[in-house]
Amino acid sequence: xxxxxxxxxxxxxxxxxxxxxxxxxxxxxxxxxxxxxxxxxxxxxxxxxxxxxxxxxxxxxxxxxxxxxxxxxxxxxxxxxxxxxxxxxxxxxxxxxxxxxxxxxxxxxxxxxxxxxxxxxxxxxxxxxxxxxxxxxxxxxxxxxxxxxxxxxxxxxxxxxxxxxxxxxxxxxxxxxxxxxxxxxxxxxxxxxxxxxxxxxxxxxxxxxxxxxxxxxxxxxxxxxxxxxxxxxxxxxxxxxxxxxxxxxxxxxxxxxxxxxxxxxxxxxxxxxxxxxxxxxxxxxxxxxxxxxxxxxxxxxxxxxxxxxxxxxxxxxxxxxxxxxxxxxxxxxxxxxxxxxxxxxxxxxxxxxxxxxxxxxxxxxxxxxxxxxxxxxxxxxxxxxxxxxxxxxxxxxxxxxxxxxxxxxxxxxxxxxxxxxxxxxxxxxxxxxxxxxxxxxxxxxxxxxxxxxxxxxxxxxxxxxxxxxxxxxxxxxxxxxxxxxxxxxxxxxxxxxxxxxxxxxxxxxxxxxxxxxxxxxxxxxxxxxxxxxxxxxxxxxxxxxxxxxxxxxxxxxxxxxxxxxxxxxxxxxxxxxxxxxxxxxxxxxxxxxxxxxxxxxxxxxxxxxxxxxxxxxxxxxxxxxxxxxxxxxxxxxxxxxxxxxxxxxxxxxxxxxxxxxxxxxxxxxxxxxxxxxxxxxxxxxxxxxxxxxxxxxxx
Length: 699
What we know:
Elements: H1 9-32, H2 44-65, H3 73-97, H4 104-119, H5 123-134, H6 141-171, H7 179-192, H8 194-212, H9 223-231, H10 234-245, H11 253-277, H12 285-297, H13 303-311, H14 316-339, H15 345-377, H16 386-408, H17 414-423, H18 428-453, H19 462-475, H20 477-482, H21 488-492, H22 499-529, H23 570-584, H24 588-615, H25 621-635, H26 637-646, H27 649-662, H28 676-679
């Protein structure tokens, strides 16, 4: 039998992730099959043992026996700074945008829970196994210990402070703020927190042992035996409890956003800080930088669920869903990183080419599906609406972009890259590639601005839609002629950096990210100021709020509008409303999904372009994984567009009706498909006010 230490990193990682997922699924199925009933208190004892005994003792043992002197502080600093940035952004977004009609104390509680989720890596249940699987020759586990130590001394106390302040303010609503009481609550919670207490005790013991016997790998007997007995069940039990905490997942903006902040944004920012704090001439610098990216990808465990259940029960289900999504997303990202660990640039370039070619081929197929939708719907798409017109052009541009990208890939056409190297961006195929790439980016920015400032109802203005699409094509010419398209140097294996064009690429990516972020922040502020704000999951198809400035209308639960506006049976009226909301409303759920993708992708492009421009990073290790993820997000945009449309029930109801005309057994039509409601917006007067969604998802 092959020794596991001699197997490939990907195989070892697969085994570690497989065991982890099986443990989580065991807990999930135990609850779903009603073998365990958490509501009856079946898990209270296990939860107390894991949270108050096993985990604090594990922290104590790890801190007391860790060889802290061998830790490179640059690694810890990079991971910590990445977490601080992500946690701060998450806290601010949650406090400002998540259900802002609630009291200030309740919003502080939710913001603290969300921020803790974005920084709470599951170091012991997932971190140690996967790091040990990837790094068998080096003791990289000490960096897990170092980060756990920072979490115990920095992030856990900050979370406790936030929860104490929020709870005190919530308890004194209408009575004025009692700052002495708040301070006393904070100090009591800090003094009685078992994790923080055991961390301090472990550090104290570490100092005592270092002054007497030096660093010890294990505590003296019988203390080490006692700790081993108490902490042995932690790994399985913690993962089992995570599985029992999961609920039925719902695709919602906040759940997806929290996962992206933890798994993607935290990893990229940590690597960016690592390039600054870990000099290139330091021994093993590349391996240490790779670790910061991999550590940032480690998903969140069950502690945020515990905090949410105790301090903010309304968000517990959302946090549990985000934990599940994080586990699903982190697995593929970890595999990408493991495949990128080889140091050879040639191997990494080949992997990037293969991944991009596969993504382009699947995106072409997805683009054909989108074209089929357009042909099937015809006038039912309602091209009179400028937003729908721009979405249609966006999908078509993405399909052609995938075709050109596949033609440029050296796997299919090696001569394209050779010509690109000789002519330096002046080949027709590369110029077309960059033009389509930038056209799609400008279209997304324009759609995001329509989401923020435009009305929620469709307007009949075909000329405006055509004019906006034409303007996107024209404005995309300038960056296409001057800047290098993203990842093309790595695809073609060009080692030399063209400083001028790459500088323009970096500046153009920064400008895109700035515009998209400003629009997002302004949209959040406008939503918060709105008195009739509502929150719904992605794709529910009802958005916006009636106010004097933006002109948005509440359209949720549109149950009484019929296609002609005339009276009829209640069931026919409801069916007519469901099938005509696509004509009535701007597809804001779809626009929101591609806007979130665009912001994350732009952040990746800024960091990656900056790494190449300022640090000369090569396509290897963690940076190769970063390029792979950017390439997948860049070239998988057609998939995001089609999936977002499928999550919009307004679109799917129209699609099913038209499929009936092709295949009568698909569904039974209730009304005639028409765009008359767009031409008669006065029927919206009968629309009832919207109700808030329990998810608290902001659109």
